[in-house]
Design brief:
The structure holds 2 protein chains of 2 kinds. Chain A is globular. Chain A has strands at about 5, 10-15, 20-25, 30-35, 45-50, 55, 65-70, 75-80, 90-95, 105, 110-114. Chain A has no helices and 11 strands. In chain A, strands 2, 4, 5, 6, 9, 10 and 11 form a 7-stranded mixed β-sheet that branches. Chain A has a 4-stranded antiparallel β-sheet with strand order 1-3-8-7, with no helix packed on it. Chain B is mainly β. In chain B, about 35% of the residues are buried. Chain B has a 5-stranded mixed β-sheet with strand order 1-9-8-3-4. Chain B has a 4-stranded antiparallel β-sheet with strand order 2-7-6-5, with no helix packed on it. The chains are: A mainly beta, B mainly beta. The interface between A and B is medium-sized, with 28 and 26 residues.
């Protein structure tokens, strides 16, 4: 297993455009998380899935953001009508739903909105 | 979520031990103490976690105070590759609640390692 894979690694988009990021978790992990990180800050929780069910969404996740995990495998995070404030690193992590189990993070997708 | 307090930055010489402190005075009885680190341009990486007893693994040791209100991550011999931001995070052991499943990161301690 090669760990958690995120694509693309970098994305530059114009304000108002839609973007979609993909995360491929470790195959046996049933939990998948999305985080956002801006410069100098720790990652902020956005949402998480257990299998295909989205179980929690942060208030940070405005209605322009949507995440899916069809069939409980890979996940996509879409941002519609991007704004400059959406510029950040978007991190995906996966885990087993086992007490104390650690997260495995991907390397992230860096989004720049110009 | 219970809060943790860490110094903003620390420095260490290569090959020397490093003790990274974390205060968590409001920790509850079911909170695990987790440590992650984030190298430049990478996602966070799991380091170690514990509940009450001290823990050792190949990366580090975790020393937990008897009252559990503080803990210390110990890197036994720092190398340049250990330069990273280290996050101390409390995570509720109760699996089935949404709040308990996520990690809440602070701003961490930036560790600089010099020759």
């Amino acid at each position: 297993d090669t760990g958690v894979s995120q694509n693309p690694r970098h994305k530059i988009t114009k304000r108002g455009q839609n973007v979609t990021f993909r995360c491929d978790p470790i195959s046996e992990h049933n939990r998948l998380y999305w985080y956002r990180q801006t410069l100098g800050q720790g990652p902020e929780f956005l949402t998480y899935f257990q299998n295909e069910a989205q179980l929690e969404k942060s208030r940070l996740l405005s209605d322009r953001f949507s995440a899916e995990r069809p069939k409980g495998s890979f996940s996509t995070l879409e941002i519609q009508r991007t704004e400059q404030g959406d510029s950040a690193m978007y991190l995906c992590a996966s885990s087993l739903a086992v007490q104390g189990w650690g997260y495995t993070f991907g390397s992230g997708t860096r989004l720049t909105v110009v | 979520d219970a809060k943790t307090t860490q110094p903003n930055s620390m420095e260490s010489n290569e090959e020397e031990p490093v003790h990274l402190p974390c205060n968590h005075s409001t920790i509850s009885g079911t909170d695990y103490i987790h440590w992650y680190r984030q190298l430049p341009s990478q996602g966070p990486e799991y380091v170690i976690h514990g509940l009450t007893s001290n823990v050792n693994n190949r990366m580090a040791s975790l020393a937990i105070a008897e009252d559990r209100k503080s803990s210390t991550l110990i890197l036994h011999r720092a190398t340049l590759r250990d330069a990273a931001v280290y996050y101390c995070i409390l995570r509720d052991a109760l699996l089935n609640t949404g709040t308990a499943s996520k990690l809440t990161f602070g701003t961490g301690t930036r560790l600089q390692v010099t020759l």
